[in-house]
Amino acid sequence: MGKMKKVLALLVSILIVSASAAALYSCRNEAGNVDNDTTAPTTTAAAGGDETAGATKPETTGGDETTAADIDLQTKVDITTVSGTPGANESEGPANIFDGDSSTKWCALQEGVTVEWKMVEPVKVSYYYFTTANDAPERNPASWVLYGSTDGENWVEIDKVEGATLPTEFFTDSEKYTVDNPQAYEYYKLEITAVAVPGTNVTQFSEFNFYQASEK
């Protein structure tokens, strides 16, 4: 009987340690709880564009509307090539920012994160915007650099923003950021260099929306 009690006590200890480890390596919200979406995002047309079937699009917050003829470049990302700073867990990795679903996010347990990806063909990034996540606006990107490359090794800075203020509302689009003189690149890299509140030690957002403007 005594041996059975020891076995049960050991099993309980293992379960407690496992639960603690899972919580440690998960993005937490302001209350210290593991993130769970408590407010369902609104399904609308993003930035004035057409609604994407099967994708959850956030409410927009203003700015010029996307022209219907503009190309949504999320659809041209080779998702198998996405790599970057790991997420807090397997479900919060960098590939989430290209899935068209604001209920998922990239949440990394550090400030200063990078994601790289390859397009299915060379494209020009004319403008882009972010979609915020489900909590903790202090984790929003505030400064970043967008790079392009023809070979995935030699990078050209195509846009740099410092001290930006993204919306504090959840599942919400930022303003649009225009790329001056866009060139066609097959590879892209986004480096987030600062978050809204330095010292947060977490970086997160749900979508990186980027477009190639229609030729007029």
Q: Please indicate the count of domains.
A: 1
H/E element sequence: HEEEEEEEEEEE
> Main β-sheet, in a few words?
5 strands, antiparallel
Rg (C-alpha, Å)? 20 Å
Question: In percent terms, what proportion of residues is strand?
Answer: 25-35%
Distance between the termini: 82 Å
Describe the secondary-structure layout.
Elements: H1 2-24, E1 71-72, E2 77-84, E3 106-108, E4 113-124, E5 127-131, E6 141-149, E7 156-161, E8 177-178, E9 184-195, E10 203-205, E11 207-212
Antiparallel strand pairs: 1-11, 2-4, 3-10, 4-9, 5-8, 5-11, 6-7, 6-9
Describe this structure in words.
- This protein is mainly β.
- The chain has one domain (28-212): Jelly Rolls, CATH 2.60.120.260.
- The chain is built from one helix and eleven strands; from the N terminus they run αβββββββββββ.
- It has one helix spanning 2-24, and strands at residues 71-72, 77-84, 106-108, 113-124, 127-131, 141-149, 156-161, 177-178, 184-195, 203-205, 207-212.
- A five-stranded antiparallel sheet has the order 2-4-9-6-7, with no helix packed on it. Strands 1-11-5-8 form a four-stranded antiparallel sheet, with no helix packed on it. Strands 3-10 form a two-stranded antiparallel sheet.
- Strand 6 (141-149) and strand 7 form a beta hairpin.
- The longest helix is centred in the N-terminal third of the chain and has 23 residues, at 2-24.
- It is globular.
